[in-house]
């Protein structure tokens, strides 16, 4: 089965919404102002993206850890090491200003995609995994790029 399961696709796309929201509040001054007044700064512009991006990279480390349980021997060790990299990246490479943190998250998500590809190539991820991950990574990186550029 190479088609993305509907529930995984819908939940994955729902997980992109905070990144989209952050970009929209930057692109629309009216929406950004409303969000700032109503929700506060943490849920506006790059801040919602940065907080949420750290959470998602940590979450994805957990997903990769689950895939690593299917490996054995030296490959298992490699997979466990690779699985913690996204969370460690998010921890050490953010909190250094909004633009620099945004760039770090972009690099983190692109690096995560490379790790996803390795796990898929090793047969540890579902056959549809890379279709979903490429789609979601593209959307997330595009939204983060709005915050880095503006």
Automatic annotation (TrEMBL):
Stretches assigned to coiled coil: none
Q: Which residues form the signal peptide?
A: none
Residues annotated as transmembrane: 48-67, 79-96, 102-120, 132-149
Keyword match Nucleotide-binding? no
Q: Which UniProt keywords apply?
A: Membrane, Transmembrane, Transmembrane helix
**Which Pfam families does the record cross-reference, listed alphabetically?**
DUF3429 (PF11911)
Q: Which InterPro entries match?
A: DUF3429
What is the recorded name of this protein?
Answer: DUF3429 domain-containing protein
What PANTHER family does this protein map onto? TRANSMEMBRANE PROTEIN 69 (PTHR15887:SF1)
**Source domain of life:** Bacteria
């Amino acid at each position: 089965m190479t088609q993305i399961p509907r529930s995984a696709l819908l939940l994955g796309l729902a997980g992109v919404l905070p990144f989209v929201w952050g970009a929209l509040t930057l692109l629309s001054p009216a929406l950004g102002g409303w969000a700032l007044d109503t929700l506060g700064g943490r849920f506006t512009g790059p801040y919602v993206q940065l907080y949420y991006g750290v959470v998602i990279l940590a979450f994805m480390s957990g997903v990769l850890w689950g895939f690593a349980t299917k490996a054995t021997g030296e490959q298992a060790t490699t997979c466990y090491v690779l699985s913690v990299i996204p969370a460690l990246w998010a921890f050490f490479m953010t909190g250094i200003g909004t633009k620099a943190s945004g760039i770090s998250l972009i690099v983190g998500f692109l690096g995560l995609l490379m790790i996803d590809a390795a796990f898929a190539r090793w047969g540890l991820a579902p056959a549809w995994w890379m279709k979903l991950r490429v789609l979601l990574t593209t959307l997330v990186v595009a939204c983060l790029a709005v915050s880095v550029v503006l």
